[in-house]
């Protein structure tokens, strides 16, 4: 292999490695964004699960028809809960 061919081969390998490195950096950024989004979604799911539990406890209380899915203070009369 001549010196010119060797230089061309080295340049091509360098270009390929640069392209691969850039792609890896893009992939890493994408993974970080997905991890952040996953964390936000996990937090949202926990929040929604907590709301569901509140709704369940509300439905089981004696003010069931009046509280409109709020967390009931069972000491209040039902007309106070509607506000």
Describe this structure in words.
It contains two helices and no strands. With 83 residues, the chain is mostly helical. The radius of gyration is 30 Å and the shape is rod-shaped. It has one domain. The longest helix is centred in the middle third of the chain and has 57 residues. Helix content is 73%, strand content 0%.
In a nutshell, what does this entry contain?
With about 80 residues, the chain is mostly helical. About 75% of the residues lie in helices and about 0% in strands.
Q: For the CA atoms, what is the radius of gyration? A: 30 Å
* Shape call: rod-shaped
CA-CA gap between termini = 87 Å
| Beta-strand percent range | under 5%
* Total beta strand runs: 0
* Average residue pLDDT: 79
Number of domains: 1
Give me the number of helical elements: 2
Helix content: over 70%
* Biggest sheet character: none
Low-confidence stretches: none
Would you list the SSEs in sequence order as H and E? HH
Structural class: mainly alpha
Quick tags:
83 residues; 2 helices; 0% strand; rod-shaped
Task: Describe the protein's topology.
Blueprint (H helix, E strand, L loop, with lengths): L2 H57 L18 H4 L2
């Amino acid at each position: 292999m001549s010196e010119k061919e060797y230089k061309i081969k080295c340049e091509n390998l360098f270009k390929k490695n640069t392209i691969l490195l850039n792609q890896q950096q893009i992939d890493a950024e994408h993974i970080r964004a997905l991890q952040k989004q996953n964390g936000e979604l996990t937090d949202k799911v926990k929040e929604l699960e907590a709301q569901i539990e509140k709704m369940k406890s509300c439905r089981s209380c004696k003010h069931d028809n009046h509280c409109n899915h709020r967390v009931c203070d069972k000491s209040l009369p039902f007309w106070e809960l509607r506000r």
